[in-house]
Design brief:
With 91 residues, this protein is mainly alpha-helical. The protein contains one helix and no strands. Keywords: Coiled coil.
């Protein structure tokens, strides 16, 4: 008979729904894992950037100190007149 159609459809659609939900869950987990890995990479890059920035800062501080002390600059071509740092008066 044909009277079975509706309940069967219902069962089948529930099955499909479950399948899709499972698949969606898996995909979400994968997506989240990828995002986490990406975040971790970004954080690592940031840390590296921060380290090199701090290194550069300390280098500059050393240059400024030695230039300001009037001993000349460790790097060739560095401006020697302290006026260019805005430390002393007239240029």
């Amino acid at each position: 008979g044909h009277h079975c159609t509706h309940p069967c459809d219902l069962v089948q659609s529930q099955w499909w729904h479950r399948q899709l939900t499972e698949q969606a869950k898996v995909l979400l987990q994968q997506h989240r894992a990828e995002k986490d890995a990406e975040m971790q990479r970004c954080k690592n890059d940031l840390v590296k950037l921060k380290e090199s920035f701090e290194q550069a800062q300390s280098d500059i501080a050393q240059w400024v100190r030695s230039c300001g002390a009037g001993r000349g600059c460790p790097r060739p071509g560095w401006p020697r007149r302290s006026g260019q740092f805005g430390v002393a008066g007239g240029a």
